[in-house]
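Changelog-adjacent note: as of this version, every example in the card shows the full chain rather than a window. The one below runs 160 residues end to end.
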Amino acid sequence: MKSSLLLCVALAVSLGFILVAGYPQDSENKEYVLVNNKCQCVTVTSKFVPSKENPDEEILERNIRILVPLKARENISDPMSPLRTTFVYRMTELCKKCNPVEIELGGEIYQAQQSTSCNEPETCYTYNRDKCYTTTFPFVYHGETRDVKAVLTPASCYAD
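Full-length structure tokens:
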């Protein structure tokens, strides 16, 4: 009973984070950024705007901005892989939050996590600037071929 209650509260808290969490993009018009996924080049914002039917009423407007990288590869770490022709965006995957959150239930503190699919690798359409990407390539030196590791995103691989 206690574990099912914990699961229900964790689910309610995490859904609240999806619907409510965000940070203001522009303080003047109160537009909030809900998702800023640099890996898939997607930004989702929301703001309240006057209703067209009833100007005294406000409705929630969501804006989804998708930047499609034109020369993205199927495997972004392999410059020889074919160009990507299919881009798939699922709001449930974009909005998932894998960082555990502490919640209090009955005087005890528990850690809850919104998603159960956090261990699955994320499909990236471009380089995430916060992640280090490397690849290997054949290097010929004095007639001898060696596989050499090369950095594709130097700014994120080397500390200042």
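Structural remarks: The mean pLDDT is 76.
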